[in-house]
């Protein structure tokens, strides 16, 4: 794995105010998240995914274990290193307009920023999430998807090294989702970010380096997307055994494998087309 940044060691979090149901919400979770790494965190409703992200953010007390950021316990961490896009995302907004929201983020990073630099900064991050409405637009006039884009832009603009997205792409249209996935990969590489995508959308898993399944507060699997979707040694893929619907690329590849006796394991449309063309060229 990439150089670790966040390490969860044997982390337990108890259910708040439920003495009648003593089950912990997180049960002995040990995980590491690396630099330049995108991790997809999946699991059924109530598995503990949001709790895990909020725990990394330091919002819940641990009943056991510890979490460190590059060796420092997270409770001793200076603010701004870890950023989460909450549900509902509007909970994190401070500004009245798109400009204000992103300008406040810029000023937190650099209080000496000039007005001209501020304009460039705001436009850069608005463009990154394809927020095409005028930047003076009030946040109260934005649609759900536009609001979500603003919150994602704010997180990307924050300069945090760890970004936690809690089903943040769900309200976006297909085009925005696809564009953002590409952006995340580029940003993770360029700024050595650690990105955690909590998601029910298996298309998100395609761009991840690793996929982690959480179930009843426990890590049940941590593997690479190829193994997750295509299995190994002829075994049923874990994606299927856990009841997640695979992305269409995986469905298409499995259908072609079955029909033509192939063993393709593509994770993108480009890869799928390339492999099919290769097989076609070989057979002619
Ligand atoms: N503040 C809280 N107090 C008590 N129990 C909680 C609290 N927040 C969550 N839980 C419980 O913890 C468990 C995990 O919830 P969590 O929201 O982390 O799941 P999730 O994996 O994010 O689910 P979803 O996919 O529905 O968002 C659930 O059983 C939930 O009822
Ligand atoms: Mg959740």
What are the key terms here?
single chain, about 280 residues, alpha/beta, 4-stranded antiparallel beta sheet, 10 helices, binds adenosine-5'-triphosphate, binds magnesium ion
Topology:
Elements lengths: L3 E11 L9 E11 L2 E6 L6 H8 L7 E6 L2 E2 L8 E4 L12 H12 L5 H14 L15 H14 L4 E5 L7 H17 L3 E5 L3 H5 L3 E6 L2 E6 L1 H6 L7 H4 L6 H13 L8 H14 L2
Parallel strand pairs: 3-8, 3-9, 6-7, 7-8
Antiparallel strand pairs: 1-2, 1-4, 4-5, 9-10
Helix pairs in contact: 2-3, 2-4, 3-4
Bound molecules: adenosine-5'-triphosphate (ATP) and magnesium ion.
Uncertain runs: none
Number of helical segments with 4 or more residues:
10
Radius of gyration: 20 Å
Mean pLDDT, nearest integer? 92
Strand pairing plus helix content: what structural class? alpha/beta
What is the β-strand count?
Answer: 10
Overall shape: globular
Question: Would you write up a description of this structure?
Answer:
- This protein has 284 residues and is an alpha/beta fold.
- The chain has a domain at 247-284.
- Helix content is 38%, strand content 22%.
- The protein contains 10 helices and 10 strands.
- A 6-stranded mixed β-sheet has the order 6-7-8-3-9-10, with helices on both faces. Strands 2-1-4-5 form a 4-stranded antiparallel β-sheet, with helices on one face.
- Strand 4 (64-69) and strand 5 (72-73) form a beta hairpin.
- The longest helix has 17 residues, at 174-190.
- The chain is globular and about 65 Å long.
- It starts with a strand and ends with a helix.
- Magnesium ion binds next to helix 1.
- Magnesium ion binds at residues 49-50, 166.
């Amino acid at each position: 794995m990439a150089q670790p940044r966040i390490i969860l060691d044997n982390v337990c979090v108890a259910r708040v105010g439920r003495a009648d149901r003593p089950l912990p919400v997180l049960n002995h979770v040990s995980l590491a998240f690396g630099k330049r790494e995108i991790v997809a965190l999946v699991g059924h409703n109530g598995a503990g995914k949001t709790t895990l992200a909020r725990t990394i953010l330091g919002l819940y007390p641990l009943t056991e274990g510890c979490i460190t950021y590059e060796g420092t316990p997270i409770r001793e961490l200076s603010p701004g290193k870890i950023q989460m896009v909450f549900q509902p995302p509007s909970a994190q907004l401070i500004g009245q307009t798109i400009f204000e929201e992103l300008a406040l983020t810029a000023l937190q990073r650099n209080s000496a920023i000039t007005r001209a630099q501020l304009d460039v900064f705001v436009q850069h991050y608005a463009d990154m999430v394809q927020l095409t409405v005028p930047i003076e637009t009030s946040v109260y006039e934005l649609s759900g998807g536009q609001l979500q884009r603003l919150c994602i832009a704010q997180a990307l603009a924050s300069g945090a090294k760890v970004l936690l997205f809690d089903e943040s792409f769900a309200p976006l249209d297909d085009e925005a989702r696809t564009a953002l996935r590409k952006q995340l990969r580029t940003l993770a590489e360029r700024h050595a970010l650690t990105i955690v995508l909590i998601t029910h959308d298996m298309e998100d898993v395609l761009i991840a380096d690793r996929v982690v399944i959480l179930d009843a507060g426990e890590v049940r699997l941590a593997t690479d997307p190829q193994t997750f979707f295509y299995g190994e040694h002829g075994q049923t893929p874990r994606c299927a055994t856990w009841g997640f619907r695979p992305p269409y690329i995986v469905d298409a590849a499995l259908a072609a494998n079955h029909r033509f006796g192939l063993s393709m394991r593509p994770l993108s449309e480009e890869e799928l087309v390339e492999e099919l063309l290769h097989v076609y060229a070989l057979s002619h």
